[in-house]
């Protein structure tokens, strides 16, 4: 189940990034950051389940930072 969620969030992030690069319209950049932050969160849960705590903590901090920046982006725009 976690692999499926990771794949969905990765595809969404790539789709939003490709749309922004192709059209030059970056209005969906916050959604791209949200999907990448959620992907990192799912990856950190996977790492904790596989007992690799160092990578789990690194991915958790990365996901929290990305989600914090995303929330600020939604509030300021």
TrEMBL record:
Cited InterPro entries: DUF3953 (IPR025018)
Transmembrane segments annotated in the record for this chain: 57-76
Keyword entries, A-Z: Membrane, Transmembrane, Transmembrane helix
Protein name, per record: YczI family protein
Species of the source: Virgibacillus halodenitrificans
